[in-house]
Amino acid sequence: MAINSDFLVFKPRKENYTIAKRGRPSDIKIGIMMTIPYRAAVSSLFFQMAYTYLNSLEGVHAYRYVFDIDSKRIEALDTEMSIKKLDAILISLPFELDYVTAAFILHRLGIIHKDKGWSKPLIIAGGLAPTSNPLPLAEIVDFVVIGEAENIIDKIVYSLAEQNPVKMLEDMPCVSATPFSDVKRRCFVEDLDNSYHPLQQFYSPDEEPIYGYGIRVEVSRGCPYLCAFCMESHVLYPFRYRDVSMIEKIVLRGIEFLKIPRAIFYSLSLFSVPGIDHLLGKLISNGIKASIPSIRVEHANSNRLELIKLLGQKTITLAPESLVTSHSCRIGKCYSIDHLIEVLETSYRLGFDHVKLYLITGFPDLNIDDEIQAFKDFMHRLSFIKKRKFIEISMNPLVPKPWTPYQYLPPEHVLKTSKNISIYKSFKSSVADISILDPNWAFAQAVIALGSRETSKLIIEWALHGLGLGGFKKALSSLNQECKRYIRHGWEAPPWYDAVDMGIPVKYLELRARFLRAL
Ligand code: SF4
Fold this sequence. Notes:
Oligomer: single chain
Strand content: 15-25%
CATH topology of one domain: Rossmann fold
Number of strands: 19
Bound molecules: iron/sulfur cluster
Structural class: alpha/beta
Strand order of the largest sheet: 1-4-3-2-5-6-7-8
Mean pLDDT: 96
Radius of gyration: 23 Å
Low-confidence stretches: none
């Protein structure tokens, strides 16, 4: 398919920092592609890292591409060169629904695997979702990096200058070639302190990044809690963190470079990092602001809430997920409702604008009447709050994901939450605002997350019908028997076991699934 020139536009931004490199025709040319708009893409540490690190390599040029959702166009930030002149494109796909956008983009550019085969540019995907299960990308991309790429990125890039890069990539550890029929073991970085962290980060003063301006700092990877529904913690296992002295160094150097005294911390469990409270106090003394990610309820206390307030954050985000505490403990979220109420009281007293709460509905091991009763009781206890919509509840249906104990549930399980959702929608409260994810989107996510090679056909079909739910429904109607079966009944032997060695014992998943009545 010919390149659609209206679809790919050259749209450089006014940025604090760009890399201008003199090149030779023989240099390796890499595209770094994000399926999200510029202001979201600059918040990705992968995007930041890939741009600065790849351009620091001898004989390598890296060019950035983002996707504007409104105009549905790819924007090249660095070059007007034809995309077909690239040797490879690294495409970041952290979430399952990104696959649909990726299929849409690659199809429009004429470089989707199904049409172009193994010709250049080679499409190399990475991210949490494809690491857990690359199969649904079978007809879309050429390769998937299974796990964390830092230790092999140089090898991947330099292999592109070799005689037979496809063969070289196929033979590399943790690089899996479509149709992903060899089991590849996940790579991970053991020592974060000695791994690359981008300090020279780019942004545009004209487009405020999500989470705001400031140095983005990866504090830790993985999470020690392994909550039953949480794919991140299972796929990023084990929990690793940077030493606080290293975190401080990154913050100070980043601030010196950006000239913005603010840090944005990335961590699945910030308060599991030893010494972090002390570091936050030090930042406050030095006049540095910070953005703190969502925290576990039992990690929140008045000292920490005060620290967070002094760091300039206006909203606290807590993730209790389940309000039935006997159940929340079973899934890995132990806390008490009294403590949660105390945290809300303190947040209210300290003058935070809002508290955001993440909740999940549709756990197979939790009776809906108990769930609703716990919700009502909780809402009843919020009468001390006099500020309208002080609490923002984000309610999501449980989405079963690979390499978690809920992976045996069929995607159709998600649709059962429609009833729960309509009950929640009928709640009226002046104190809390409830936003609820449409179960159809959650269902689509589960269909892809738990998919097989056949699912890549569904994704492409969906992309051809546009990126909305209407396209998904049309694509669903053309499913073959294999897809229909797993969507209705789930997998007994998940097919991703034959593509990825995650290092997680299958027995653990089975036993925990039985305990949770999900198998
Ligand atoms: S605390 Fe959060 S990040 Fe950690 S395992 Fe639980 S849900 Fe996942």
